[in-house]
Specification:
seven-stranded mixed beta sheet; alpha+beta; 27% helix; Aminopeptidase
Length: 159
Amino acid sequence: MWDLIQKGGPLDENSMYCNLVQCDHFADTCVIAELDGEIVGWISAFIPPDAPDTLFVWQVAVGESARGRGVAKKMLTELFDRPICADVTQLKTTITADNEASWALFNSFAENMDGELDHETHYEKDVHFGGKHATEYMVTISDIESASENEQQPNADVI
């Protein structure tokens, strides 16, 4: 999983310790995807204590061999089908303006889940990052309804 995250494209780097803590303490809201015994996808997420109706997606990584095959969307759907997300009606995540893959993923996911996608400036380049990181937009998909049975499932196992 660590290797996949490090190769996962425009993701901010976290320490291996951080990823291990995510696996230990947020296992119910994190997911990996395997293809032919190889880990090809990872999502870390959590339900904020002050917003039990919200799933915040921290990172999405998909290996090159699995890109364009719907693996990320299948992982998101799997998360929403878990018992821990029974009361979740919205997804939040932050995305930079130039991360086309994430915008495409979350727009497609919103459409498949009959949700509504909105976004607003959240962490600003100059105000929050001292000019060293692009502005992050808070993306909210609200009014989510489960649509997993209607999705075309890619050939990957999600755990």
